[in-house]
Design goal:
Helix content: under 10%
Radius of gyration: 33 Å
Order of helices and strands: EEEEEEEEEEHEEEEEEEEEEEEHEEEEE
Strand content: over 45%
Distance between the termini: 61 Å
Largest sheet: 8 strands, antiparallel
Number of helices: 2
CATH topology of the largest domain: Jelly Rolls
CATH architecture of the largest domain: Sandwich
Length: 367
C-alpha cells in the first residue's frame, strides 16, 4: 500500500460476447453474408483528478470490403468488477462511466453505446466519447485504487419504427378529405355508420343521368418500392335506368379493380379484378328515394358494408374483401398485379339513383 501517494487507475477489458479482447475483430451476421467489425477500447485509464477524466473513446468500424446490415446495430454495455468503485483495501472512491463531463452521482446509470450500420460502414468507422466522472477523493488515505470494467458488444436487430401513414381519412366532415363532387353527384356527411359508429361519406347521384367521377387522392408518396396497405369500408345502393356507376382503385391510368353498378334496379354490384369477378350484395334502388341523401340510409346496414384491404409487396399487389360485420371472406388475397405499383386514387361514381358509402380509409407503408 502506498503511504504518501494516491494512485487511481481503471483497467478496461473488452470481453465482447465471444470472449475477444479490445481491438480484435469479431464476426457478425449481415443480411446475406458474414461481415466483420472491429471495436477498439482503450486498455487503461489513469485518473488525474476528481471530476471528468476522458479516454480516447470507443471506435467501431466494419472491416474493409464488408457492409454491416442496415437492419442491425452494434450495442456496447459495460459492467464493473467493484460496482463502480475504485478500491484500495477497505477504502473506495466512487465514479460514473459517462460520455461527457458532469457531477458524480452514486445512483447514476452506467453509460451504454449504440453504433448504427451507417456509423459502422462510414470510412474509418465512428468514434464515440467515453470517460469517467470521479468523486472527490481528497480525504481518502493514500493507496492504489483500482477497478476493472468489462465491455460486452452484441449485434441486435433494429426495432421497427412502425408503419408510416400516407393518407388517413375519417370522412367525418367535408374537410376529411376535401373533395370535389363529379357531375350529378352530391356529398352527404350526416349519417353514422352501423359498422364504425362514425360519420361516413355518403356520395349519392342527384339527377337522372350519367355521373361524373369524384376522386379521393391517395397522396403523393411513391409507394411502388415499399410494402403498403390500403384499407377502407365500402357500401352502395343500386341504381336505375342503366346509367352505370363505378368505384375504381387506380395506379396512375391503370385500374386495379372496379366495382360496377349496372344500374338496372339490381341487388348486386360486380367487383371485377383481372379476369375475375364477384357480386357484392347491395339494396335495390328505391324509386321514391332516388336522388336524395336518404339513399344512404338504405345501404347503412350490416349486410351491405364491406371491408377492403389491398396490400402491395415485392411480389405484387393483393386484394382481400370481407363482410364488415360477419367477417365472411368474399375475396381472399387475389392478385391484382404481378409487380408492386403505386396506388394513386380511389374514384367513386354513384350510378343514376344510387349511392356509394366510404369510411375510415387509410394508406400506410413501411412495415
Amino acid at each position: 500500500m502506498k503511504i504518501k501517494k494516491k494512485i487511481l487507475s481503471l483497467a478496461l477489458a473488452g470481453t465482447m460476447v465471444l470472449g475477444l479482447m479490445p481491438g480484435m475483430t469479431m464476426t457478425a451476421l449481415a443480411a446475406d453474408n458474414v461481415s466483420t467489425y472491429t471495436l477498439q477500447i482503450p486498455s487503461t485509464l489513469n485518473v488525474s483528478a476528481a471530476g471528468w477524466n476522458a479516454t480516447s473513446g470507443l471506435t467501431a468500424a466494419v472491416t474493409s470490403g464488408d457492409t454491416f446490415d442496415s437492419g442491425k446495430k452494434l450495442s456496447v454495455t459495460a459492467s464493473s468488477a467493484n460496482s463502480w468503485l475504485l478500491v484500495s483495501g477497505s477504502n473506495s472512491v466512487g465514479y460514473n462511466l459517462a460520455t461527457a463531463t458532469g457531477t458524480y452521482s452514486s445512483s447514476a446509470t452506467p453509460t451504454s453505446w449504440e453504433f448504427t450500420a451507417a456509423e459502422l460502414n462510414a470510412s474509418g468507422g465512428t468514434n464515440k466519447a467515453m470517460g469517467i466522472i470521479v468523486d472527490d477523493y481528497s480525504s481518502k488515505p493514500a493507496g492504489t485504487y483500482q477497478d476493472t470494467v468489462t465491455f460486452t458488444a452484441s449485434v441486435e436487430i433494429v426495432a421497427s419504427a412502425g408503419p408510416k401513414t400516407a393518407v388517413a381519412y375519417s370522412f367525418d366532415d367535408a374537410n376529411s378529405p376535401s373533395l370535389t363532387a363529379g357531375s350529378r353527384v352530391s356529398f352527404d356527411y350526416t349519417k353514422t355508420s352501423v359498422i364504425t359508429s362514425t360519420i361516413f361519406l355518403n356520395a349519392y347521384n342527384n339527377d337522372n343521368g350519367d355521373p361524373g367521377a369524384s376522386t379521393i387522392s391517395l397522396g403523393n408518396t411513391d409507394l411502388s418500392g415499399e410494402n403498403w396497405t390500403l384499407v377502407f369500408e365500402w357500401a352502395a345502393n343500386g341504381g336505375a335506368n342503366r346509367k352505370v356507376g363505378h368505384t375504381i382503385l387506380k395506379s396512375g391510368d391503370t385500374t386495379l379493380f372496379d366495382i360496377v353498378d349496372n344500374s338496372n334496379w339490381n341487388t348486386a354490384n360486380q367487383l371485377t379484378y383481372g379476369s375475375s369477378s364477384v357480386d357484392l350484395s347491395v339494396p335495390a334502388c328505391n324509386k321514391s328515394n332516388r336522388f336524395k341523401n336518404s339513399t344512404g340510409d338504405l345501404y347503412n346496414t350490416t349486410d351491405y358494408w364491406y371491408h377492403f384491404e389491398v396490400t402491395g409487396t415485392s411480389t405484387g399487389v393483393y386484394l382481400t374483401v370481407t363482410n364488415s360485420s360477419s367477417q365472411a371472406v368474399i375475396v381472399d388475397s387475389a392478385k391484382l398485379s404481378e409487380t408492386n405499383v403505386n396506388p394513386t386514387a380511389l374514384s367513386i361514381e354513384p350510378s343514376c339513383g344510387g349511392a356509394i358509402g366510404i369510411d375510415e380509409l387509410s394508406l400506410t407503408y413501411g412495415e
